[in-house]
Automatic annotation (TrEMBL):
This is Resolvase HTH domain-containing protein. SUPFAM superfamilies: Homeodomain-like. It comes from Salmonella enterica. InterPro entries: Homeodomain-like_sf, Resolvase_HTH_dom. One of its GO terms (molecular function) is DNA strand exchange activity.
Length: 30
């Protein structure tokens, strides 16, 4: 169960990171 939780957290973090990068790119573009 711990391993699954860690995988889930890592997945959410990667999503959050890609979202942040997208926001930063939008800021830079405008």
């Amino acid at each position: 169960q711990k391993g699954t939780g860690a995988t889930e957290i890592a997945h959410q973090l990667s999503i959050a990171r890609s979202t942040v990068y997208k926001i930063l790119e939008d800021e830079r573009a405008s």
